[in-house]
């Protein structure tokens, strides 16, 4: 199939039919609370009302990054139960070198990012694809935090998004990220997947707004699914 024919987004058709964020989250809360919550509507309500704290990471360091624009739009597209804030930056991380770690330990920006990841209920990575893979800066950041004791991605719910001016929207970087996340024991949301292809036509560079309604809608669906996913699987703190 020629690349141009691939849809900009991939989602599960049945997801749309069954999509009801409140019901999904309540069910997830029941699963998480277990038998103590059953027959205890008050407890269930408390869980359903709990605000989820999610941190976002942008894989691009570019000031006018499309992926950053997408990341900055996330709080406005999230369900009421989810607060999304940007994780501490990784642009000051030195290149990972085990000798440097042995000599001086972990740089302060590395521990700042790791602390934020540990404290969050979930993590959203929004990244471009570089040469069919993970941008070097983002991979370097993951490599640094992965060497910490109490490795912050272990057991952590993670959602992935990518945007590209090309037609595939960065599909390949997501599969490479998934592979790293498997090694780190993260819990990566399977679907809906968000690949924003032809992003220059869907995001206004001047205002940084996602102008395409379908794109906003798909992102909102993924965030609602992620809230349910966090409720069902929890986060190891
Ligand atoms: C080093 C480099 C490699 C790239 N490789 C890819 C690629 O493999 N796939 C793709 O869709 N776009 C690729 N691009 C184009 C990027 O998707 C495009 O520059 C995009 O705007 C970068 O994301 P940003 O706007 O968030 O910075 C590459 C760009 C650079 C600078």
Q: Characteristics of this structure?
A:
two-stranded antiparallel ribbon; globular; disordered N terminus; binds flavin mononucleotide; Rossmann fold; 9 helices; alpha/beta
Describe it for me?
The chain is an alpha/beta fold. The protein has a single domain (7-233), classed as Flavodoxin domain (Rossmann fold, 3-Layer(aba) Sandwich). Helix content is 44%, strand content 14%. The protein is built from 9 helices and 8 strands. Strands 1, 2, 3, 4, 5 and 6 form a 6-stranded parallel beta sheet that branches. Helix 2 (21-33) crosses helix 3 (41-49) and helix 2 packs parallel to helix 9 (213-233). The radius of gyration is 18 Å and the shape is globular. The model is unreliable at 1-47 (pLDDT under 50). Flavin mononucleotide is lined by residues 60, 62, 65-67, 128-132, 164-166, 170. Flavin mononucleotide binds at residues 60, 62, 65-67, 128-132, 164-166, 170.
What topology emerges from the helices and strands here?
Blueprint: H1 13-18, H2 21-33, H3 41-49, E1 52-58, H4 66-77, E2 82-86, H5 98-104, H6 108-119, E3 122-127, H7 136-146, E4 157-163, H8 171-183, E5 187-188, E6 194-196, E7 203-204, E8 209-210, H9 213-233
Parallel strand pairs: 1-2, 1-3, 3-4, 4-5, 4-6
Antiparallel strand pairs: 7-8
Helix pairs in contact: 2-3, 2-9
This protein binds flavin mononucleotide.
């Amino acid at each position: 199939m020629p690349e141009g024919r691939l849809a900009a987004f991939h989602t599960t058709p049945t997801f749309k039919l069954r999509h009801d964020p409140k019901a999904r989250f309540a069910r997830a809360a029941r699963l998480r609370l277990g038998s103590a919550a059953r027959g205890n509507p008050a407890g269930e309500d408390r869980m359903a009302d709990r605000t989820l704290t999610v941190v976002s990471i942008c894989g691009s360091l570019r000031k006018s990054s499309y992926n950053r624009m997408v990341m900055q739009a996330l709080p406005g597209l999230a369900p009421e139960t989810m607060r999304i804030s940007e994780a501490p930056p990784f642009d000051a991380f030195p290149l990972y070198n085990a000798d440097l770690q042995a000599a001086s330990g972990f740089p302060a920006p590395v521990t700042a990012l790791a602390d934020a990841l540990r404290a969050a209920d979930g993590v959203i990575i929004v990244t471009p694809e570089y040469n069919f893979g993970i941008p070097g800066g983002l991979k370097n950041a993951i490599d640094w935090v992965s060497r910490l004791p109490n490795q912050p991605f272990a057991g952590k719910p993670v959602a992935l998004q990518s945007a590209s001016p090309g037609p595939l929207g960065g599909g390949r970087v997501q599969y490479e990220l998934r592979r790293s996340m498997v090694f780190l024991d993260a819990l990566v949301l399977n679907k809906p997947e968000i690949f924003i292809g032809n992003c220059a036509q869907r995001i206004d560079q001047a205002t940084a707004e996602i102008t395409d309604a379908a794109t906003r809608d798909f992102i909102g669906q993924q965030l609602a699914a992620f809230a349910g996913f966090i409720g069902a699987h929890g986060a190891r703190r």
